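Researcher: Please predict.
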Amino acid sequence: MREDYIAQLDPYAHLLPGKMRTRYYMQRLSHEAALQAIKGPVQRLRPFAPGVAESLVNDLSSIKIRKPDGTLEPISGQFVEPVQLQVVCYSLWQQLPSGEAEITEHHIQEVGNVAQSLGRYYEARVKSVAEMKRVKERLIRKWFETKLIAAAGVRNLVLREPDGKSGGLDDEVIQALQSDLVRAEQRGGLVFYELTHDRLVEPILTSNKKWFDEHLSPLQRQAAMWNEQYRDERWLLTNQGLLEVERWAKENSDELTELEHEFLEACRRVQAQLDEQRELQKQQLEMSLKLAQQQAQSAQRLRFMSTISAMLVVLSLGIALLMFKRASSAQDIPTSVLLIVAALLLGYLFGRSRSK
């Protein structure tokens, strides 16, 4: 039973045989205790080859330390988590091929790989808790990856908040994950949550990457890529792409994380800028069309006036010629010359008005 649950039984201890006076606290296993737990049960059935059990214990106890240059180096730690040892050994025993006398390093790598075994166990636990607590599996996985694991790939502490949520996840869900995946630590009167062991970091990240690739929606996947690319605007969605993810967000609003809300807001800002540019271009186009229409109407009026002017010139010349003939027959030469000059002047004036 988890330690934090025992206190809830104390009021009823007087009703139980022995009144719960005998208690045994299950400590984390030392290397020697872990080796005994691994070798003992199978010693007479199918023993480990020399050095294989020791290699398995070193793997299970590995932790990461930061070197002076800032890089992380895995080393063998002091303790092994009993649940992790049980998970790995059970998985190894279940998948061992028959007909062989020993458990070798080859078997460890092929069927009892520590990372794979812990990854499968993590997947089963998260799925079970998500169904039991009726919470999205993605939220639990995201909580592990972004809250319990720091960006450098090491364990991180999450403070238990008084509002019933810690790091964005309900405390009831976190308590269901305790004892094997999550541990509660009291420090300075406060309670912090952390992974039970560094060895869980790699299996969790590997499992999450595979799960997210298979289950994320286009919105969630695009938001993650946008964040990975330092929130470059070229990764934002607009037009039809934005409409599609907006529909998904409306139907699955309870799944949206803070990052995805920020991604949608950034997309909407860019879309608003595009709409404003398109409206400006539309107005400019309408003004251009209106100006072209006005110029076409002016040209049409000019052609009409030119045609009228030409007709008047021809008519004036015809009248002048007719009057010239009449004047010539009457021997009125000055009058004829005057009429011709008037006709030419009229043609000149019409030509000037046409050129304008």
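Model: The radius of gyration is 45 Å.
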